[in-house]
User: What shape does this take?
Amino acid sequence: MIRAKKSLGQNFLISPRIVGAIVDAANLKKGELAIEIGPGKGVLTKALLDAGARVKAIEKDDRLIPVLAESFRDDISRKNLELIHGDILETNIESLATGPESYKVIANIPYYVTGAIVRNFLSAKEKPSEMILMVQKEVADRVIARDGKESILSLSVKVYAKPELIMNVSRGNFFPIPNVDSAVIRLADIHNPFANKKSEENFFEIVRAGFAQKRKKLSSNLSSVREKETVAAAFKKLGMGENTRAEDVPLESWILLSEALLG
Assistant: This one.
């Protein structure tokens, strides 16, 4: 019996009902490419294959590779499944999805790598058409900004995609049982809104600077990366008050602000 590794943030999904809901949310067409991150013991992998998808599954845990290879040897031989032993954070996204082929990312991912995984796919040259992700409920709430407060995470997602809550998932649907509840979210309408790489890098520089010290006013935080007079002029142009705080600024205003502060 293979036990979950705490160091990898592993909690295996064991509920057939939740697995089915994830596959339904993905709305996969026959033959469509699904990239699965962290297949674990292959419960979701099997459901994706049963739905008619071609699957590329990336698994970091070397203990699980022979188990998956044996369980899915027929699908691998038919080329319905490609099993990749590796760390998704060290994997070249372009090598997974080549050319104009549409693909979807479907994953149950641990909290500590959620932001990095989402950012890598959304900023890739060949972006997925959708991402269906099981994440910690707290992370889902932050991505969607359900309390009306933006964060670096929510803005990093919303600038590329429209986030949507599919369902909340209680901790009892996993083994071992985690200390937190989870949620399934969909990232749809994925696109690149930036005119060029410089604009993209500038946007994230401004956002990171804006949230650098949450207790400080946005204008004060931004003065660490741009001249104070330049920041004041941008605020005046956009009709933003000098006491504005980063978490209260919507995405559209962040885009305009970053354009006004393009370095």
User: Anything to note?
Assistant: The mean pLDDT is 92. The radius of gyration is 20 Å. Residues 202 and 263 are 7 Å apart (CA to CA).
